[in-house]
Amino acid sequence: MVRAVVATAWGGAEVIEITDVPSRPPGLGEVVVAVRATAVSPFDVKRAGGLMNRAPSLLPLRLGNEMAGVISAAGPEAVSFEARPLAVGDAVLGHWLEGAQADELTVPANTLLHKPPQLSFHKAAALLGSGTTAFHALEAVGVGEGDRVLLHGASGAVGGMVAQLARSRGARVIGTASRSRHERLRAAGITPVAHGEGLAERVRALAPDGVTAAVDAAGTDEALTVSLELVPDSQRIVTMVNFSAAWAAGAKAIGPGEETERIRPAARSGLVRHAATGGLRVDVAMTFPLAEAASAYALQARGSAGGKILLLP
User: Fold this and answer.
1) For residues 52 and 44, what is the distance between their CA atoms, to the nearest angstrom?
2) What is the CA radius of gyration of the chain?
3) Total structural domains in the chain?
4) What sign does the dihedral 173-174-176-179 (CA atoms) show?
5) Both 141 and 114 in a single domain?
């Protein structure tokens, strides 16, 4: 049997439990992965809360979609996302994996990438969900050389990735965060600014020539309102949180759909290479044993971790 994290009802951390599920051997083109680390994301919290789908037939709902581990069994024709053979003992990582918060996972081999030895299991498990979301956000608003980007939620897991990738494209980043995290942002090359009343004026003072694009990783009303006030072209404002309000205001929102399925997978290999060579920092805020998954979900729901939250089987 395999230990797995499930939501037993629709709700918050109080519905998160560990249950035993059957182990499944690999079929054609599949592998079994002994999970070393698995991430808890805002998407997982939304699924547990029934915000994606509240069909009673889904319960108990297995959770998680990002992990890194070691292959313990491989079926015939097991080939990775990079079109390379996978074998027992190979270290791998992946995301968009149903039920990834578990001791063990049986998945199609082509959903996984080889984990470079320079990348720890912790950082590998924390990389792809935030990294591909950040990449998609920058693609959506065409951030490039000379842009001045206002980034809401700069100290979070996705925000940290957005900032690094934007700077690697030649953009300047002004990032909102609580004052206690400003030194950390400065050390990362981000110009910090406190959110709250007067945000637009503070940003104008930091960027007298104006900001040219905005990325909302916070999801607050303030983030969208200030972005619309400061960015001349609303199509250069993107959120991955506040969908309805952004669309109503003529801004962009990125989430499930054809564009996501095209852009985010294409970014995976480059992100892994970038992180393995030290060009992309992966921030892990806290780790919990798998058995303490409810505590990890409670922390994620508060939205103040300042990086990725991991479960360790």
Assistant:
1) 10
2) 20
3) 2
4) positive
5) no
